[in-house]
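ingest -> validate -> predict -> emit
validate: passed (alphabet ok, no gaps, 142 aa)
predict: started
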Amino acid sequence: MPTRLRKNRRMRGTRTVGYGQIGQHRRRKGGTGKAGRHKFKWSWVTTYDPDYFGVHGFRPPHPNTTRTWISVGDLESLHTKLVEKGATEEEQGIPLLNLTKLGIGKLLGSGSVSTAFNVVVPKFTARAKVKIESVGGKVQEA
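emit:
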């Protein structure tokens, strides 16, 4: 089609360019996407997507952050706390630390220990066992 016959050439100078007096070729009158769902598109929401607004389900605000492990270097401070409470046990003159009763699940090997302990724990690392046995203690699996 020749350019001179096209609508945009014919309509030059007219106010509404052929789109009428009222609408005047306005685009996206209701907004794009999900615009207006809490205002003028509310009847659409109630009909087709009634669960669109609001909170659904429950998620705890914080995950469980309790520690279920302890390092070899923390055993002496743990023992002093138990002595203050009067909740210590001894086995053949060596302090017994039952970590299973305290809710600790694993003994890790970082840090150092200078006194001998008999430790009862469900899991332990090889490094932790070597460090405790080098001082004269022993590690038992619960």
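The chain is about 25% helix and 15% strand.
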